[in-house]
Amino acid sequence: MLLFIIKRLLLIIPIMLAVSFIVFAVLRMGPIDPALAYLLNSRIPPTEEAVKITRDELGLNKPFVQQYVTWLKNAAKLDFGESYTTKRSAFGDLMYYFPTTLKLAGLSMLIVILISVPLGITAAVNRGRIIDKIIKLGSFIGVSAPGFWLGFLLMYLFAVQLQILPPFGDGGPLHYIMPIFTLSFMSIAINTRLTRTSFLEHLNQRSVLYARIAGMNEAKITGKYTLKNSMLPIVTSLGMHFGELIGGAVVVETLFAWPGVGRYVVGSITNHDYPVIQCFMIIMTAIFIIVNLATDIIYAYLNPKIRYGRE
Amino acid sequence: MFKKFFVALLFVCCATVTAHTAENDTLTMAWPVNVGPLNPHLYTPNQMFAQVMVYDSLVRYNGKDVEPALAESWKISADGKTYTFNLRKNVKFSDGTPFNSAAVAKNFEAVMANSARHAWIALVSMIDSWETPDENTFILHLKNPYSITLLELSLPRPFRILAPSGFADNEVNTSKGIKKPVGTGPWVLKETKLGEYDIFVRNENYWGHKPSFSTLKVLVLPDPNSRVVALETGKVDILIGEGSFTVENFVRLSKDNKYITEKSAPRSTNMVALNSNRNATKELAVRQAIMYAVNKEALIKYVLLNQEQIAYQLYNPTLKYCDIGLVPFEYNVKKANDILDQAGWKKSGTYRQKNGLPLELDFHYIGTNPKHKALAEAIQADLMQVGIKLNLRAEENTIFYNLQTNGNFDLIFNKTWGPPFEPGSFTASMRKPSHADYQAQSGLKEKQQIDDTISALIISTDEKDIADKYKYILTTLHNEAVYLPFSYELDMAVYKKGRIQNFKFGEMNTEFMFHEMDLGK
After folding, report:
1. How many angstroms separate the Cα of B283 from the Cα of each of A253, B277, B279, B403, B481?
2. Which of B223, B259, B400 is most worth mutating to test chain A (most A CB atoms within 10 A of its CB)?
3. Most C-beta atoms within 10 A of its C-beta, which of B114, B343, B403, B418?
4. What is the ipTM of this complex?
């Protein structure tokens, strides 16, 4: 297992290199000129001279390979260059904004687990009954409700009309309610359905039938054996949800004015701020690799049949 | 026991009163991003409204011309090449250091050290040298006379004055940054929290009308709808500035008696540029037919919800040199049809054609701009009525501006820069190929003469001569129908009734006059 983890960690390096090259190349292949974007942001008329000067300033006039090698050398020292827009270190800026997003995504993840798993199990054990149907309806609504729509609806109701929740910012526990609910609603819905399906699948297995015949009590069958076995697809799904939550944070951070990385990166994409986009892609790649690794480790823990690194 | 209770009660009361006073001494506004490090000589991420609040220039734009600011008076030599500024005496920067001619010279040196960056302002290429004969006199020598010198000095950047104490140590050039933002303006940047807020406090050394309240807080709220929610929930006091809210929200709040909505005098002109050097718009008849075929009144009423003023000429006639009695192209479908018929464009089904070529044009707009899209669709429908097929092309922002600068368009949205850039600086820019205006005009037989007239105009020192030249340029462009102006954009602001007294707009869309407003409850 340890060998497996070390191997997977070492794999980060070639993956990062490949991702960095692809991102670097794709950004420069398009028809879009970040120098022009900078000038427009600055309200400087984009004359030919102005564009040339800006391209020189941003180092975009150098040959592609030279640009990439220089960037790579600096990136190895965690210097991802200066944001074209903020003129601060791209890595520094992202590190400044990341904790807020991680806090938002982490708390939402917790809420997703705490709500979706019990709801899914409740629906499964009450299959076909009214409670199952209510949960099913809630899940459909959750999957169909876009984050920005839900966010505005909550804001209008609780902040503007009822005035019981603060409309934006990060100032205390009350500030978390609307953003976290908005962010986690869709994941709760998806995960509830998944838990229900997975749980039902395992509930119908022979082992459960034998356990019942053997006289094992129902709570132990459901709570211990079925739950543990049905957790495998849920763990995989949760791993993916974490990425989705970070992605979904863009909407929530913009709506509820949270100074997070999603909002910052969307602004950078609009402004064609290459250093920030490149740095963000590298960080996200690392996060996804680590989350995937963690998922695999949890997998091995939940199902002893799975042992990585052994043939 | 009673004593303790009384002390506690007193403490609570004091705290409440203090909190109330603090709140009543703070105005909160919202802006999509932080104001930046506030380097007066640089661009993004420095926000122009904040640069204007913290720094002054030698002169201030007053809506028509310029008025004294850090320069009390000035004299222009007979040849128009020497400007002698008498600086305001006893002015101090916000940190208490004195303002004098040496400070002005240091700032001009900083701007000129980074002149390539500022090349878009023609004044930069005109400046020859400067001198400071005494503490209160600054003399600027130009290579050639330049009639819009004072207007360009009044711009939000780069000719604003940073205290020498704000420069980085042993540094003349500010292109790599400054030590701290110290100016002579009414406000001082006190604190910035990235992604959250910026706090300005009153400049106690301000030479003009000091702000009546001590603090201005600028919350960072990127989403325009969230900004409106912030206003409605009392988290911000005022929304002001371009793009601060949607027109729909402005209209809604204007009907709510809890809010006051304000509109400025007309600023920039929204228009469509018609390329006289490409496809069917090469023909004057087609361009003129487009002028007559577009129902501007309907655009203003149904698309712009009556929040912009109808425009019939490139520059607002209230601007200096611009009231020249041009005959507007009024909406007239019959006339448009007649012109096209006479020009040989015959109807074949819905659309027209000539010599087998369809009357079909590409109209480019910014795909993420809902106003552009709605206007483009309305114009498309108007032109269909006279048999012109308009293909709408949604573009990414930078690609859109690329099209403007390389001339690959038949029709494209365009906008003037608003005062104090117009008519002077905007007209001067028409000579540069990297502008939609140059490209739109490039097919005109008078183009060379227009450019020569502009070049002569900006170095002219005679008012009548300048007015005559403007008349020639604006009349020619109007008659040649290369612009379809449809609205004069206004600045808008909204605030809670009673919260702000003596509200007024600045003379530029980046000038917010908070220092002249008072706070209510």
Report:
1. 51, 9, 8, 20, 10
2. B223
3. B418
4. 0.80
